[in-house]
Amino acid sequence: MSHPNKAEFIGVLTLVATPSDKAPSGARGHRVELTRAAARAAIPSLLGMPVNCAVSLDGHDVRHKIGIIDSAEIRGHELLVSGYLFKRDFPDVVASLMASADPLGMSYELADARVDDMRATVWDLTCVTFTGAAILLKSKAAYSMTDFVLL
């Protein structure tokens, strides 16, 4: 039986061992590449972390936490996450996401990121701690191949 306050989702949070399409926020204009080793080591830090969503779907809104990540795994080059949104607490947001005509993606939030060479055009992230994720328009994500689907 489903829970009345859970809208389950699955998503591609990011790609591993693949340079971002554009610079994410906080990367000082640099594209980034999350190494496979760093992603694998950081998976436990994703579990239980919040999912947020800006009303405009154009970025992050860490003060608008609407869900939780409860599973994560690397499959090929994709870092897949799943979890749930609080559908009774945020019925308007869940309805808006379900009705979106524009493709939705995801973006990660980090702390304690280590960059191999700060002078490189593409920063290799060799160690990270995930602090959450955002749902946003694919066109606004640093990785255009991310994905978000409500189940």
CA-CA gap between termini: 14 Å
Largest sheet: 8 strands, mixed
> What is the assembly state of the chains in this entry?
single chain
**Secondary structure: helix percent:** 10-25%
Radius of gyration, rounded?
15 Å
Number of domains: 1
What's the β-strand tally?
Answer: 8
Order of helices and strands: EEHEEEHEEE
Q: What characteristic shape results from the CA principal axes?
A: globular
- Unreliable stretches, pLDDT < 50, 5 or more residues? none
Structural class: mainly beta
**Mean of pLDDT:** 96
How much beta, percentage-wise?
Answer: over 45%
Number of helical regions: 2
Supply the key terms.
eight-stranded mixed sheet; 46% strand; mainly beta; 151 residues; 2 helices; 8 strands
Question: How would you describe the overall organization of this protein?
Answer:
This protein is mainly β and 151 residues long. The protein has one domain (6-150). The protein is 13% helix and 46% strand. Strands 1, 2, 3, 4, 5, 6, 7 and 8 form an eight-stranded mixed β-sheet that branches. Strand 6 and strand 7 (122-137) form a beta hairpin. It is globular, with a radius of gyration of 15 Å. The mean pLDDT is 96.
